[in-house]
Known about the structure:
This protein is mostly helical. It is built from 10 helices and no strands. Helix content is 62%, strand content 0%.
Amino acid sequence: MSLDRAAAWELVCEYTQNDALRGHMLAVEVAMRAYATKLDEDVEKWGVVGLLHDFDYERWPNPPDHPLQGSAILTSRGYPEDVIYAIKSHADYLEDCPRISPLDKTLYACDELAGFIVAVAKVRPENLNGMKAKSVRKKMKQKSFAAAVNRDDIVRGAEDLEVDLNEHIQFVIDAIVPISEQLGLAATDVANTITE
């Protein structure tokens, strides 16, 4: 089966109505595509893994239903085993799916971090515009901010990829910036606001 991004997006829309969750999957997708380009991997495959990793979460949020329900759906639709395995491996509680391949490790490293970056962008007047890793690291220390995001997962993800955490954070920020408008995070033009 050749991976078709449009078909993957249809699957996301079929199972996910929540715009924020769709946005999260789009953010992880672009981060995965950026890493695939950097590592000379299959950009389409990596992008589809990022796009589909949480498509079942809205219907089956409880472990291990997520991601096992989604995995069964992907299997029934003929998705490749390595795509399905990578999606299963992003769930820490599935002990029989350790992260082995660069694809597995990169999905894990981008998942929580992309969500956290978007949360940080939402509280900045400039949104994603000009965001630096330092801003994200500062918010990571604030336990009450985006409390559902596991900071240890973010740190462990960078370690598994064997990349510096600050470089990893900046790389993911830079990957997400081009879709900031699609995520509702486009920087507002203050000058236009003042003159209107």
